[in-house]
Amino acid sequence: MRRLGFVALFALMIWVSHSCFVGCQKPTVVNLGAIFTFDSVIGRAAKPAVEAAISDINATPTILNGTHLNLIMEDAKCNVFLGSTEAFQVIEKEVVAIIGPQSSSIAHMISEIANGLQVPLVSYAATDPTLSALQFPFFVRTVQSDANQMIAMANLVDFYGWKEVIAIYIDDDYGRNGISVLNDELNRRQAKAFYKFPLPVHFTQNDIISLLNQSKLLGPRVYVVHVNPDPKLRIFAIAEKLQMMTSNYVWFATDWLSATIDSFAPMNRTVLHVLQGVVALRQHIPESNQKKDFMSRWRKMQQKGLVTSELNTYGLCAYDTVWTVAHSIDRFINDGNNLTFSSSGKLNDTKTTEMNLEKIKVFDGGAILLEDLLRTNFSGLTGQVHFSSDRNIVTSGYDVINIDKMAVHTVGYWSSIFGFSASPAETLQGRQNSHSETDQKLHSVTWPGGKKERPRGWVIADDERPLRIGVPYRASFVEFVTELHDSHKIVGYCIDVFTEALKFVPYDVPYKFELFGDGRSNPKYDQLAKMVADDVFDAAVGDIAIVKNRTKNADFSQPYITTGLVIVAPIRSSKSSAWVFLKPFTVDMWCMTAAAFLIIAVVIWVLEHRVNDSFRGPPRRQIVTMFIMTTLRFNNSEEETVSTFGRVVMVVWLFLLMVITSSYTANLTSILTVQQLSSPITGIDSLIASSWPIGYQVGSFAYSYLSETLNIHRSRLVELHNPEEYESALRLGPDNGGVAAIVDELPYVELFLSKRTDFGIIGQPFTKSGWGFAFQRDSALAVDMSTAILKLSENGKLQDIHEKWFCKMGCPGARRGNSEPNQLHLVSFWGLYLLCGSIALAALLVFLLRMVRQFARYRRSQLRLGSPSSSVHSTTRCSQIIYNFFDFIDEKEEAIKKMFMQCEINPAPQTPMSTT
Question: How many other β-carbons are positioned within 10 Å of the β-carbon of residue 162?
């Protein structure tokens, strides 16, 4: 029993040893498929490179030692159907991986096959970004994806500040998906417009001519070309014939152009003259000894006739692709995996036996080999080869090349880390990453036409498609813009401003005017602005007010005339009146002033009569003195006041007189120089408060402003169509079927007044606005026209145009009437009169009290001395006292003082005698 167990154990050991030997035995041959188009720009460089790589691998003992790598190549001939067929033929031969294809469209198809049979598909030229989707897990890319290239292209366009781009591309997976990424990237950089022009896969010369002619109708002149490599450079050759390679144009190309140029033999580079000024991207290949050695080897192969093309970046990528697959197969085998294939149950169940699907087998180790592929990391001709999580080779960036004088110049480099730089990214390692504008640098570029200055990159219009300018066809106020019926020429104030401003625009702007409206009624300007936004017109020129709702649809230039809503009403002149000098004061004011003269004259006489000889003497003289003192005192009169109270009253009176005189002078001057309104309306507030009808111009925004903003009932608003209706309605007035006033924009009113002198403007504009030219959103011409209008204003030309159209009968601004200067009412001066009267009355009362006190003193003295005057009868005593009091007041101050002194010295009674 023990012997039987020993035998069984020995047999098991022999079986395990045999199994390990069989499982660990390296295959002698490994089949590797390759599908691409042999006779193409990429294929002519890739085929020799792939073959050279296979030769080098099989000759290198450090990789796949003992295993021969067998290459099975098939020509797809740029055909998706043929490429798919060739894929099946290659897979039938039990290949472990497929190199290629170079076409993204073919890659889409073969990737589905590779998924089903678990055969890794490693492409060195299919750049469609969508191939990195999870839909194609067995697709691996050893060339940079167009997702990365389009980021670089968008950065390049943005680097030079262009916001409008035209893209020309092949209408297949490669072209559409690449341009879609470019569109997204430009949108992220606030691009304004992106126009797509697709070409058929097998496009002809007529296709190119038609496409380029269509693109010329657009404003942008920045082109991005994304097509398959074309040795004939047909797009640029035809563009040159169509005069599209001039200094007005900018041409960018993706790396298809650099691959094409790099494939040219030196003697064939004369065709580069059609690429003058073109800027393109080229996959960046760091300089290395490996690369130099291989290029030297390539030249030797050319000398032997083994190679018919120059080496391009795709040839280098193809070489590294084979080495990438070889490294992964080597790791796969060294890890003890077997290269085995098995039949697919799904394929065996298929009844279409005529297709020989039973020969197609699934690679059992495909998933493991895929993992080994993605873990590959080695130094190749293109630099360090390793992959990202999305199965794309880690990018090394792009060279920015510029073709000038049939030579290719590298003007800079782009990398996802450093952006644009004058040095390759590998020389910048260790520096701080920065994408700021100040750190982005490129060498000088020569643009189409041979100029170094950055092209503008757009045109407003050209002779084939001039700028479509909408012009309002007005029925009234045709001086602003109209069509001459005999010549059909568009003329007017607005047209003159526009044409003069165009002279200051630094580029040619072909244009044509298109009338908007029927000429029988004024058009709606809101609709005109909307038509600009809807691309019916490229711009609009006319008397277009810049208001809020219009700015929502279009961009406007700097206002070329300041405007606003004003009120116009009838005016009259008062210069011819013989009694105009009475108008500054009201009747009450005149009466009060005259009464003040008399009152002050009497007060001054009373105060000065006892102390001032000028106020004594004959009555006539005293009256003259009173008049002189109250009217001419401040005009260097020789008469003077003596008493303190008189001086106080005179100072106040002179102040009052000065104020009244200056006010009278100012008001009289205004009456004699300013035209007067015959309407009681003094401004917009009084117009709103009234119930009178208000006129407005049909088509003007005044209607909406009055009804919606000022809430004036629409029944009060009267439509007026032309200046004749303006005049008629104003002359009729509100009581006879006309209007009290008209509300319209200032330029219309000024033009109306330039031919009529019976009307004027009340007050100032109660809204602030301006007229401008309307352009489509983000139009560069709007900015340039604004600058031009400012220049017109600075050099006085704008004012000259204004005077030409608005000052045919004298500029109406000089006749703009404010409301009639109001007469000066007593209420305006009652405080001053009250002050003067109070002081005069106070002085008079103090004077009288003083006189009463002196008289009482005098009477007591007389009574004490036994004066005869004390024996008068009682019935006559009161009148006698009053009479004596007035006699006492009439005496001079000096005589009174003498009487007091004599009464104290001489007891004999004395009666004062009058000296008047």
Answer: 22
The model's pLDDT over 741-773, given as tens digits with 9 standing for 90+, comes to 999 888 888 888 877 778 888 878 888 888 999
How would residue 593 be classed by pLDDT, with cut points 50, 70 and 90? confident
Q: pLDDT-derived band of residue 395, with 50, 70 and 90 as boundaries?
A: confident
Whole-angstrom CA distances from 406 to 248, 262, 271, 469, 565 are 20, 13, 8, 42, 64
Task: Say if residue 168's pLDDT is above 80.
Answer: yes
Overall pTM > 0.85: no
Is the pLDDT at 740 greater than 80, yes or no?
yes
Report the alpha-carbon distance of residue 191 to residue 426 in Å, rounded. 31
Q: For 609-632, what is each residue's pLDDT tens digit?
A: 666 656 666 666 666 666 666 665
In Å, how far are 463, 477, 479, 494, 519 from 491, measured between CA atoms? 22, 12, 8, 8, 14
Lowest model confidence (mean pLDDT) among 226-240, 251-265, 602-616:
602-616
Torsion angle of C-alpha atoms 335, 341, 346, 349, degrees rounded to 10: -160
Sheet holding 139-141, edge to edge: 68-75, 29-36, 98-99, 121-123, 139-141
Q: Which two tokens stand for residue 258?
A: 């650099």
CA–CA separation, 412 and 437 (whole Å): 15
| 884 CB-contact burial (10 Å; exposed 0-12 / middle 13-18 / buried 19+) | middle
**What is the per-residue pLDDT for 820?**
44
Strands 467-472 and 482-483 turn out to be unpaired
Is the bond leading into 101 cis (omega within 30 degrees of zero)? Answer: yes
Would you say 621 and 579 are in contact if contact means Cβ atoms under 8 Å apart?
no
Closest to 559 in 3D by CA, of 723, 902, 788, 817? 788
Structure tokens at 369: 């080999």
Q: Answer positive or negative: Cα dihedral of 190, 784, 799, 811.
A: negative
CA separation for the pair 752, 82 (Å, rounded): 81
**AA identity, residue 914:** S
| 3-class state of residue 185 by DSSP | helix
Exposure of 695 in the CB half-sphere (CA atoms within 13 A): 26
- Dihedral sign from CA coordinates of 304, 310, 312, 318: negative
User: Do 471 and 481 touch, CB atoms closer than 8 A?
Assistant: yes
Contact (CB, 8 A) for 470 and 514: yes
Decide: 551 and 540 in contact? Cβ < 8 Å: no
Token pair of 322 as six digits = 């084979």
Longest Cα–Cα distance of the chain, Å, equals 193
Amino acid making up residue 568: V
Q: Of 533, 567, 572, nearest to 549 (Cα)? A: 533
Q: How many CB atoms lie within 10 A of CB 183?
A: 17
Residue 770, both tokens: 């301006």
Structure tokens at 10: 């020995």
512 phi and psi angles, rounded to 5 deg: -145, 140
Q: How far apart are CA 590 and CA 5, in angstroms?
A: 152
Is the pLDDT at 476 greater than 90? The verdict is no
In angstroms, the CA 737 to CA 50 distance is 98
Roughly what angle, to the nearest 10 degrees, separates helices 587-608 and 619-631? 120
In angstroms, the CA 420 to CA 434 distance is 10
Is residue 51 over pLDDT 70? yes
The rounded distance, in Å, linking the Cα atoms of 235 and 543 is 45
- The H or E element that residue 226 is part of is strand 222-226
User: 497: which 2 tokens?
Assistant: 């401003």
Q: Are 412 and 418 in contact (CB under 8 A)?
A: no
Asked whether residue 481 carries a pLDDT value surpassing 70, the answer given is yes
Read off the pLDDT of residues 14-28 as tens digits, 9 standing for 90 and up.
444 444 444 446 789
Beta bridge partners of 469: 513, 539
Helix or strand holding residue 774 (H, E): strand 774-775
Average pLDDT over residues 212-227: 92
